[in-house]
Amino acid sequence: MKDAKKAQVDDAHIAVHWKEEGYYQPPARFIGQANAADPDILERFSEEHFPDCFKEYADLLTWDTYWQTTLDTSNPPFWKWFVGGRLNVSYNCVDRHLATSRNKAAIIWVPEPEEERTEAVTYQDLYGRVNEFAALLRDFCGVKVGDRVTFHLPMVPELPVSMLACARLGVIHSEVFGGFSGMACGGRIADSQSRILVTMDGYYRNGELVDHKAKADEALAVAREQGIEVDKVLVWRRHAGQYASESPMVDGRDFFVDELLNDYRGTLVEPVSMPAEAPLFLMYTSGTTALPKGCQHSTGGYLAYVAGTSKYYQDIHPEDTYWCLADIGWITGHSYIVYGPLALGTTSVIYEGVPTYPDPGRPWRIAERLGVNIFHTAPTTIRMLRKLGPDEPAKYNYRFKHMTTVGEPIEPEVWRWYYDSVGKGEAAIVDTWWQTENGGFLGSTLPALQAMKPGSCGPGVLGIYPAIYDEDGNVLEPGSGRAGNVCIRNPWPGSFQTIWGSPERFIQTYYEKYCANKESKDWRDWPYMAGDGAMQAADGYLRILGRIDDVINVAGHRLGTKELESASITVEEIAEAAAVPVIDDIRGRAVEMYVSLKPGFSASSEIEKKVSKAIESHIGKIARPKNVWIVPDMPKTRSGKIMRRVIASISNFADIGDTTTLANPEIVEDIRQHVQGEKVDRGETPRELTAEELKEMAAFGAE
Ligand code: WTA
């Protein structure tokens, strides 16, 4: 296996040919007001000043007890930042702004139905709501410092209120993306051993009031199977006093939050002073095995890092109106809708629904009406808005000074539409590359100081020193034209601390491969391996090529192939399943499933539908496959491993490559004719793929 893997990466060493894009200089109007306009900052964060440079980020916070040690490396790679310091995140995001900004909106919430009233939550309101819910959690639910509470909440202000209430108590929250299924939520409840689930009755999505509470019942049943009994389900109501779900409330277990809160009106809860390295929250992310990883994020390091990067990279000033369209159920929302912006005391806009509802002019209407001047979204949304409403931005009178993109590589063409049409040529763009594990940005451009280059995220951000390694641990020099594994050579305060309950897996997945010496206590021996393939140009800018493992990135969301496959196999008729990515011009990648049937069953569209449904209920709608192909058998190696790269190439009309190592090469042509024939009939022939896309398919899941 090792040799085959090596061959695959050596392959990636062949120069990837793409046009080197030209630079765009930051607009003068932007530079004039930027938080970081003095090039001295680059010097202050240069490697010789590491790790002390991060004091500048820590000093954006209010500490109850100031820290003594910047970085403790005594137990690699479990780094500790700002050791000895104590602080409270809810105090930092809410209380400390009251003196200057009591009546300013902390959150502006825009419901999806356009006729429903937009809600401004001032810092004073937020303070009241966070305190009351914290009192309820403490006194009614009995949660204590270090307990875990799972949320399964949509894009409503109750989500940040719940997060900040937990933070106030030193309780660890674990938000599961609202679009995920009850089953996915149940698995995460069990893994984190939460006794409390906070959910909502329903929410609006694409014009429909979705029944969400129903998922809670399923989640609890799944958690129970895995040995965890949830004591209480707290149900926020989308419209207080009205219940939007068909699911019955279970007596003694399910409670309406708006009713319980009557007992806590005006109650204040002293923020618990937490050690800097206490966990703040868990965020689950897909890995290559069936089990999602609970990334554990810290209190002091995390908050310092998201505050610092929000200030310098998002260029957030307190008087800005900032809108990030991501879902708070993903790391982007945690770091750059809630914690970073609120730590800086700005106004953060939260939109409930689908960006193109009821039409693709909606985001620009919202921006115009609220005076949004910083806009943040993902390539998948940009592509969708460009496809459905290319001329819409010009119709609205908003002015962005700054725009962000995150989650997957953005094609230069799409970047240019974002710049010219959405930004009207006057906004600085930052393309931010990072991961759930990282807490905040790793690669980007400092908006006033570093030129933009479409398709490249930029160099390592302040205090982050990346390097690209080949399979043998040699550094590929910038400008070599070779792709490899992108690593960060140093620790940084925003990084996750471990995988919840699996410290071994933490080391194995991210540090083992390039660790120079396991006994060493020097951080220089422990580069962090991101798991992305990348190339670095001569100017140090990184071009991220995508995951090197077999995770499929759909619309910026990572889906593990193993999770998709295990879900498919829950269908009675299915013997084997393999998930592959297919190029999708809107979502980046979509999922296609290949399944083979147990003896005695024959192919039918019912079975295909069952597989889709199973994936939808185990993981969520986001993972719904574009196609389910029932095949007589999978292409396999002699040792019985499914060759995903072969079917990935078929799905994408790419060159199938060498099949001589297969145990059953004859099957490939049958599958190809069947799948590609159907695809031609359905009008699903893809555009011509780029060299990188072809490479991705040829290497997908290769053993
Ligand atoms: C990909 C999202 C290219 C990458 C914050 C990474 C990107 C994975 C970019 C993490 C970008 C994220 N350019 N690729 N600007 N941002 N990615 O954990 O493959 O949901 O490893 O975190 O998305 O996705 P995650």
Structural summary, described in words:
- The chain is an alpha/beta fold and about 700 residues long.
- The protein has 22 helices and 31 strands.
- The chain has an eight-stranded mixed sheet, with helices on both faces. The chain has a seven-stranded mixed sheet with strand order 5-4-17-16-18-19-20, with helices on both faces.
- Strand 4 (about 105-110) and strand 5 form a beta hairpin.
- The longest helix is centred in the first third of the chain and has 17 residues, at about 125-140.
- The radius of gyration is 25 Å and the shape is globular.
- The structure holds 5'-O-[(S)-ethoxy(hydroxy)phosphoryl]adenosine.
Summarize the structure.
This protein has 22 helices and 31 strands. With 703 residues, the chain is an alpha/beta fold.
Descriptive keywords:
30% helix; binds 5'-O-[(S)-ethoxy(hydroxy)phosphoryl]adenosine; 703 residues; alpha/beta; eight-stranded mixed β-sheet; seven-stranded mixed β-sheet; disordered N terminus; 22 helices
Low-confidence stretches: 1-17
How far apart lie the N and C ends? 6 Å
Ions and ligands: 5'-O-[(S)-ethoxy(hydroxy)phosphoryl]adenosine
The chain-level mean pLDDT equals 93
Helix content: 25-40%
Side-by-side strand order of the widest sheet: 12-11-8-6-7-14-15-24
Rg over CA atoms, rounded to whole Å, is 25 Å
